[in-house]
């Protein structure tokens, strides 16, 4: 672990490789698990404000779940998260003709309908952050469904922190990311 500003960062994001391989996993991270995508407090308002614009991009099952439970829900841990369809996939997930899970929020963003891409937790994945009173923990979330992404990342020699560069900059800023790159360069010697 090392510190950058008010973050404590796991060296695993420097030491492990990762590149999403949707052909192999079919977007399983949006479908598997027992919880919705973690949301920051500020993202709950965004979901509420853009729902009507995003709704045409969603599946009927997702719309039904959102209209029954709301655009976001309080998880068992007391934190905000996206609602699920039948305790399974994220209510905002859509599927391609080949059965690959994609984000309906991102589809609306790419179509120019909204200015918000998706929750930062999804954008950062496989990096997970956790806010504490004095610092933010920045960790690697290893999940076996992402083994193909780890293999592709290793093949392409792309460390996690480079794969999620844009998301890390969005979350922590350019200066923070530059310091992370300096730590990575120092650790690779």
TrEMBL record:
It comes from the Bacteria. It holds the Pfam family DUF3109. InterPro entries: Rv0495c. Belongs to the Rv0495c family. This is DUF3109 family protein. It comes from Flagellimonas okinawensis.
